[in-house]
Design goal:
The protein is an alpha/beta fold and about 140 residues long. The protein has a single domain (about 1-65, about 100-135), classed as Hexapeptide repeat proteins (UDP N-Acetylglucosamine Acyltransferase, domain 1, 3 Solenoid), CATH 2.160.10.10. It has three helices and eleven strands, in the order βαββαββββαββββ. The protein has helices at about 5, 30-35, 80-90; strands spanning about 1-5, 15, 20, 35, 45, 50, 60, 100-105, 110, 125, 130-135. The strands form three sheets. Strands 1-3-6-9-10-11 form a six-stranded mixed beta sheet. The chain is elongated, with a radius of gyration of 19 Å.
Length: about 140
């Protein structure tokens, strides 16, 4: 097990006191093993007293498809009515919300194979298969 505050070197990742990651002795740094698409400008904040299991994966926003259009599918590249109708529909729609950071509360357990998600707050459990428990026994 590795205390992350001393190991993490990226300016894009903040770590609270006593947060640890079980690397199973692999020696692969947390940033390389668990955090994908961490290219900025978005930042990752891990609260204090977090336990991150081997196999946990954190996907940062840079891994998303471009969201400046109406869809991640490139309708406009086909030209003609595809382009005209797609742009007309898109330009008349309200702007989508923009996410700038990933923030995780403290005293959280991230289970093996579980996708870490925002919004768990303090004292949450993120387990495999998308399960999340908070304030109750799983």
């Amino acid at each position: 097990m590795v205390f992350l505050k001393a190991q993490v070197s990226s300016d894009l990742i903040g770590v609270g006191d006593h947060t640890y990651y079980d690397d199973r002795g692999s020696g692969v740094p947390f940033e390389e093993a668990c955090v994908l698409y961490n290219y900025g400008p978005h930042r990752l904040f891990n609260g204090g007293f977090r336990a991150i299991a081997p196999g946990a994966t954190i996907l940062m926003p840079a891994g998303n498809h471009p969201t400046i259009g109406p869809s991640t599918y490139p309708f406009t590249m086909f030209g003609g009515q595809w382009a005209e109708r797609t742009l007309e529909t898109y330009l008349s729609a309200p702007a989508p919300p923009v996410c700038s950071t990933r923030a995780f509360g403290g005293q959280v357990l991230d289970g093996a194979g579980g996708p870490a998600r925002e919004g768990g707050g303090h004292h949450a459990v993120h387990a495999g298969q998308g399960r999340q428990f908070q304030g109750q026994a799983p």
